[in-house]
């Protein structure tokens, strides 16, 4: 039993909930990083056990064993990234920013481990004679290719640079997402006359009225005003049903230009950095471009 701030960390045990859904009412922000760190150690130990297995590598004792490893890490990251993308508070973003380098380094440690790769390679090279199903062969191939794509064949200097690139890319991609979300949150369209809701289903109108009220406006579904945003539950039905071409154009331009408006949340330089690193990574692996 592992405690966090006087409470049992819910990520350290199976969830006895309907459909195995996360017990969100029990999960606190203090639980995430502790579970990430514990989950890393757990999966590392599980992979060490796979490597230490004295029996000839097989699908079950190597590939399946890996697929079943890291349950705590899968559990916490699944919740962490879903919550951070749907409720991206500043504190949740800080947690993700701390978790990303830990997870990037952990992934590199797995897919640059030559001893683990040798076992996977043995299964890969013998899978046609091992009586594996089509699905099992695909799992083996994907795992084998993950090692290749992460530079298992590179020398020590190449792998060190690959680690740097992977860490930088993980951080930049998170920055890209944060900037995109900030730009999404920054825009809203306030409609104050009924012509602006022409064509919209009643449920969409009611939701827009609720959003306006939440933003501080004295709103009703019948008289407005109505607030529309670039978040999908608002943007998609508005673009689908609105009879106002001019308002659809305004929404579309705002949506399609997110991250391209200058200022601290502009993504142009971030994109250039990402592409430069992806190109360098591709060339480290012997390709001309990331597309190759």
Please describe the topology of this protein.
Blueprint: E1 3-4, E2 7-8, H1 29-52, H2 59-67, H3 71-86, H4 90-111, H5 114-125, H6 134-149, H7 156-186, E3 188-191, H8 202-214, E4 226-229, H9 232-241, H10 245-256, H11 268-284
Antiparallel strand pairs: 1-2, 3-4
Descriptive notes:
This protein is mostly helical and 292 residues long. The protein is built from eleven helices and four strands; from the N terminus they run ββαααααααβαβααα. The protein has helices at residues 29-52, 59-67, 71-86, 90-111, 114-125, 134-149, 156-186, 202-214, 232-241, 245-256, 268-284; strands spanning 3-4, 7-8, 188-191, 226-229. The protein has a two-stranded antiparallel sheet with strand order 1-2. A two-stranded antiparallel ribbon has the order 3-4. It is elongated.
Question: Quick recap of the structure?
Answer:
With 292 residues, this protein is mainly alpha-helical.
Q: Could you list some keywords that capture this structure?
A:
292 residues; mainly alpha; two-stranded antiparallel ribbon; 11 helices; 4 strands; 4% strand; elongated
